[in-house]
Design goal:
This protein has about 150 residues and is α+β, with helices and mostly antiparallel strands. It has one domain: Jelly Rolls. The strands form two sheets. It has a four-stranded antiparallel beta sheet. It has a four-stranded antiparallel beta sheet with strand order 2-7-4-5. Helix 2 packs across helix 3. The longest helix is centred in the C-terminal third of the chain and has 30 residues. It is globular, with a radius of gyration of 16 Å.
Length: about 150
């Protein structure tokens, strides 16, 4: 599995990855497929194997703003880990996508049963959330902010 800054697998020890993969199933999405919608129930998540997925944010009175594009190795979906388990963004397949899908409730149960693995998963997902928040902020400033309002060095 490819490891990226937004990769879940790279942060887990081999035995943790093996336990997590017990809950995995292969899925695919055609280009243009909506994978999930902002505000709906987050009951699963994916690790992208091939293809790319855009994350978007509803902007009232405008088209949804694309805030990030995910690639192979990236975690798709983090809202499954935090109550109230609803998507904070939307996602669409930019190209044909193959991914590994996980049932969120079962993975949360695994995290409860194995606190060391649960901490590793929670910590990595929190890092991914922070990265995505910064990416979304930068992208929205690029789209809607006054010129020169992006991130400062």
């Amino acid at each position: 599995m490819i490891s990226t800054p937004t990769s879940l697998f790279g942060a887990l020890p081999p035995e943790g990855r093996a336990r997590l993969m017990e809950f995995a199933r292969e899925v695919s999405f055609p280009a243009g497929a909506r994978i999930f919608e902002e505000g709906r129930r987050a009951d699963r998540f994916w690790v992208i194997r091939t293809g790319s997925v855009t994350l978007d944010l509803h902007v009232p009175g405008r088209r949804a703003a694309v805030v990030e594009t995910l690639s192979p190795g990236d975690l798709l979906g983090w809202s499954w880990l935090f109550p109230p388990y609803t998507w904070h963004l939307g996602a669409e397949a930019l190209s044909p996508v193959r991914a590994v899908e996980f049932d969120a409730a079962r993975v949360r149960e695994l995290c409860e049963e194995d606190p060391v693995l649960g901490r590793a998963i929670s910590t990595k997902v929190a890092e991914i959330v922070a990265h995505r928040l910064q990416s979304a902020r930068t992208r929205l400033l690029d789209l809607y902010g006054p010129h020169g309002s992006g991130p400062r060095p």
